[in-house]
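in:
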């Protein structure tokens, strides 16, 4: 939920991260919907943001889902 970090106040729980051998964060690992994207998101910040927001919708609590859905919608509509 990294894309929403500035909007959320942590309750002391781990953030979700995709598995990455060179990662620096020790967080809750979540498998991406498509594992092939792990290399692609390293090269495309917009793709990373969209997929992170989709995972927030997929895995978040009610507040996170609402924030992620609104953010994703505004990003898509502004294109």
């Amino acid at each position: 939920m990294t894309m929403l970090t500035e909007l959320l106040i942590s309750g002391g729980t781990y953030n979700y991260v995709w598995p990455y051998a060179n990662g620096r964060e020790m967080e809750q690992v979540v498998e991406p919907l498509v594992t092939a994207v792990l290399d692609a998101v390293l090269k495309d910040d917009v793709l990373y943001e969209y997929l992170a927001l989709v995972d927030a919708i997929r895995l978040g609590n009610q507040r996170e889902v609402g924030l992620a859905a609104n953010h994703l919608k505004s990003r898509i509509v502004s294109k």
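note: The radius of gyration is 12 Å.
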